[in-house]
Design goal:
With 43 residues, the chain is an all-alpha fold. The chain has one helix and no strands. Keywords: Membrane, Transmembrane, Transmembrane helix. This is Putative membrane protein.
Length: 43
């Protein structure tokens, strides 16, 4: 019983971590595109 509870907690943490990593990667991609756009407009 205790093993299953810890497994569920670890799975939840892993899912949250992977979602956060994906979210940060998306934000990074948006920032990179924004900076590229700014560089194109300024030059």
């Amino acid at each position: 019983m205790l093993f299953t509870i810890t497994t569920i907690i670890l799975l939840k943490r892993f899912i949250i971590a992977s979602v956060m990593v994906g979210f940060l990667q998306n934000i990074g991609g948006i920032f990179i595109k924004f900076f590229e756009f700014c560089n194109i407009t300024t030059t």
